[in-house]
Design the sequence.
């Protein structure tokens, strides 16, 4: 049994959730077919999820770009709202690939605003865009292009009873 479409979030609710929640979880296939599930900060632009990271998740996504992302809010089941994206990740290997991405600049601006004051620094009135970039052996940005998007808003469960 799948999730009823009657529980789906509206496009504006999806945008609100994706631009206000701080953490996503991305699942990639690790060595020996184990799932690597990692919480990360992220941006949302052009209907894509953007992130900057390093280590095993980048290695995994280079090897197999298929992944799943979930962003949710609220703890209690009757209040849970979420967006689950299954799609293909692209690892942006250098500044030329970053510059060529059509939505990365927008995602960087959105991340700058969302995480303003994060990492223990004081918030500023006009936050600059997130400036993370490809560096070193495995520090990279990436984007996930959705193939399947499933959303749910458990506030709507009462209406289905």
Sequence:
């Amino acid at each position: 049994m799948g999730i009823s479409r009657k529980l789906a979030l509206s496009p504006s609710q999806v945008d609100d959730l994706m631009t206000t929640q701080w953490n996503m979880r991305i699942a990639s296939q690790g060595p020996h077919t184990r799932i690597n599930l990692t919480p990360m900060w992220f941006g949302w632009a052009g209907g894509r999820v953007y992130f900057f990271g390093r280590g095993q998740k980048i290695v995994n996504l280079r090897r197999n770009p298929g992944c799943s992302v979930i962003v949710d809010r609220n703890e209690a089941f009757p209040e849970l709202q979420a967006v689950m994206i299954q799609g293909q990740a692209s690892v942006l290997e250098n500044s030329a690939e970053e510059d060529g991405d059509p939505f990365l600049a927008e995602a960087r601006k959105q991340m700058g605003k969302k995480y303003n004051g994060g990492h223990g620094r004081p918030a500023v009135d006009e936050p600059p865009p997130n400036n993370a970039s490809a560096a070193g052996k495995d520090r990279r940005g990436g984007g996930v292009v959705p193939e399947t998007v499933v959303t749910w808003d458990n506030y709507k469960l009462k209406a289905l009873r």
